[in-house]
């Protein structure tokens, strides 16, 4: 049994995609990031960066005590390696899958996240920042589009690399991107959207959906953190 500490953000969706694909039993625990629930002491014990998602695996492979894992990429890798599902078994395939998993974690996610912030949430419009992150998001879409030429999925077969990237493409309109400009990516996006597990994962999110525009109190929680937030 997996306890998943979750909110319906792109990083949260990554984990429900994997869990629904594999049929792994799990319990969803909502962590309302707009209300500051990510800073609760109980959550901090399993997620020291005060960010969701995080999991607790009550049946780790070594048969020992429960294991907690934070960071969405680490969670996907942990689950895939534990079960041998959605990660290639051969050296070269596994290496390629990890390259694209880390590409998403280090590139697509952070750049698209900043794109969202300056286009949707920033209290003032800064043209340079909006152009900077919209253009970098477009560059990353083009990189993924090129990788998908002649492939159904990023590494050939559907894998954690796809599960990591797909949720960050879902809000492409908010990122100022037109999927028609990236035909290989568009076809890949549709393939994943058509998977029954994808439908189930996004249906689970509906129980936690809130307004896309946070109020002032939520903005302070989401965007007003600094070193003083971290308590020793």
In short:
The protein is an alpha+beta fold. Helices cover 52% and strands 8% of the residues.
Please explain how this structure is put together.
The protein has 232 residues and is of the alpha+beta class. The chain has two domains: 103 residues, Glutaredoxin (3-Layer(aba) Sandwich), CATH 3.40.30; 104 residues, Glutathione S-transferase Yfyf (Class Pi), Chain A, domain 2 (Up-down Bundle), CATH 1.20.1050.10. It has nine helices and four strands; from the N terminus they run E-H-E-H-E-E-H-H-H-H-H-H-H. Strands 2-1-3-4 form a four-stranded mixed sheet, with helices on one face. Helix 1 packs parallel to helix 3, helix 1 packs across helix 8 and helix 4 runs antiparallel to helix 5. The mean pLDDT is 94. It comes from Marinibaculum pumilum.
Q: What's the SSE blueprint?
A:
Layout: E1 2-6, H1 10-22, E2 26-30, H2 41-44, E3 54-57, E4 67-70, H3 72-83, H4 91-121, H5 127-147, H6 160-169, H7 183-193, H8 196-205, H9 216-223
Task: Sum up the structure in keywords.
Glutathione S-transferase Yfyf (Class Pi), Chain A, domain 2; 232 residues; 4-stranded mixed sheet; alpha+beta; Glutathione_S-Trfase_N; 9 helices
Derived from helix and strand composition plus strand pairing, the structural class reads alpha+beta
SS element count, helices = 9
For the sheet with most strands, the description reads: 4 strands, mixed
Give the rounded overall mean pLDDT.
94
**SS strand fraction:** 5-15%
Which ranges are low-confidence, i.e. pLDDT below 50, for 5 or more consecutive residues? none
Reading off the top of the CATH hierarchy, the class of the largest domain is best stated as Mainly Alpha
Domain count: 2
Strand order of the largest sheet: 2-1-3-4
Quickly give the CATH architecture of the largest domain. Answer: Up-down Bundle
Could you state the order of secondary-structure elements as H and E?
Answer: EHEHEEHHHHHHH
Q: From the alpha-carbon coordinates, what is the Rg to the nearest angstrom?
A: 18 Å
* Structural shape: globular
Instruction: Say how many strands there are.
Output: 4
Question: What fold name stands as the CATH topology of the largest domain?
Answer: Glutathione S-transferase Yfyf (Class Pi), Chain A, domain 2
Helix content: 40-55%
Domain GST C-terminal: 90-214
Family: Belongs to the GST superfamily.
Domain GST N-terminal: 1-87
Pfam families: GST_C (PF00043), GST_N (PF02798)
């Amino acid at each position: 049994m997996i306890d998943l500490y979750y909110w319906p953000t792109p990083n949260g969706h990554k984990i429900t995609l994997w869990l629904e694909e594999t049929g792994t039993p799990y319990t969803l625990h909502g962590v309302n990031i707009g209300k500051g629930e990510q800073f609760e002491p109980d959550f901090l014990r399993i997620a020291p960066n005060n960010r969701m998602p995080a999991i607790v695996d009550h049946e780790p492979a070594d048969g020992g005590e429960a294991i907690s894992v934070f960071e969405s990429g680490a969670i996907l890798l942990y689950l895939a390696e534990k079960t041998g599902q959605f990660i290639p078994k051969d050296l070269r395939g596994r290496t390629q899958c990890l390259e694209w998993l880390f590409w998403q974690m280090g590139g697509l996610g952070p750049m698209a996240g900043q794109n969202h912030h300056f286009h949707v949430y920033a209290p003032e419009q800064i043209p340079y920042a909006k152009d900077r992150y919209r253009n970098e998001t477009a560059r990353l879409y083009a990189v993924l589009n090129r990788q998908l030429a002649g492939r159904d999925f990023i590494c050939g077969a559907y894998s954690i690399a796809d599960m990591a990237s797909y949720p960050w493409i879902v809000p492409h309109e908010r990122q100022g991107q037109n999927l028609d400009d990236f035909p290989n990516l568009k076809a890949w996006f549709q393939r994943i959207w058509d998977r029954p597990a994808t439908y189930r994962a996004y249906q689970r999110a509906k129980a936690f959906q809130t307004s896309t525009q946070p109020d002032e109190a939520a903005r302070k929680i989401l965007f007003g953190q600094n070193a003083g937030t971290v308590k020793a």
